[in-house]
């Protein structure tokens, strides 16, 4: 089972996000925020794998998002750097997205 939430604080241009899910009788939490610096650029920070089992270390992450509007389309590229707690190497995530009106 998995549940999540998001809330946009319009006065400060901050998007707050959270998620909880269960796996092997433990609850895991992810939470973070995205701060919109300009109309086309945002920075983010979050924590992954926070667990009800204190033996599991967390994985902090941070990144940036660039938005490029073109006619009725919005193109978005996001980059995140995740400090992995169980792998030998940290992760680099790149996400491409588009939306239209």
SS strand fraction: over 45%
Average pLDDT figure: 90
Could you say which overall geometry the principal axes of the C-alpha atoms support?
A: globular
- Say how many strands there are: 7
> SSE string, helix = H, strand = E?
EEEEEEE
Helix content bin: under 10%
Report low-confidence residues grouped into runs of 5 or more: none
Task: Give the helix tally.
Answer: 0
Alpha-carbon distance between the two ends: 32 Å
Strand order of the largest sheet: 1-2-3-4-5-6-7
Task: Label the structural class.
Answer: mainly beta
* Structural domains: how many: 1
Oligomer: single chain
Give a description of the structure.
The protein is mainly β. It has one domain. 0% of the residues lie in helices and 73% in strands. The protein has a seven-stranded antiparallel sheet with strand order 1-2-3-4-5-6-7, with no helix packed on it. It is globular and about 50 Å long. The model has no long low-confidence stretch (mean pLDDT 90).
Layout of helices and strands, plus pairs?
Elements: E1 2-9, E2 14-23, E3 26-38, E4 41-51, E5 59-70, E6 73-82, E7 91-100
Antiparallel strand pairs: 1-2, 2-3, 3-4, 4-5, 5-6, 6-7
Short structural description:
Helices cover 0% and strands 73% of the residues.
Task: List the defining traits of the structure above.
single chain; 101 residues; mainly beta; seven-stranded antiparallel β-sheet; 7 strands; globular
């Amino acid at each position: 089972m998995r549940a999540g939430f998001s809330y946009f604080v319009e006065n400060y241009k901050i998007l707050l996000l959270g998620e909880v899910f269960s796996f092997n009788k433990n609850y895991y939490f992810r939470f973070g925020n995205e701060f919109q610096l300009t109309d086309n650029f945002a920075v983010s920070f979050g924590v992954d794998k926070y667990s009800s089992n204190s033996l599991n270390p967390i994985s902090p992450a941070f990144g940036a998002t660039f938005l490029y509007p073109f006619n009725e389309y919005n193109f978005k590229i996001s980059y995140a750097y995740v400090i992995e707690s169980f792998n030998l190497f940290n992760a680099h995530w790149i996400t491409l997205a588009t939306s239209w009106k």
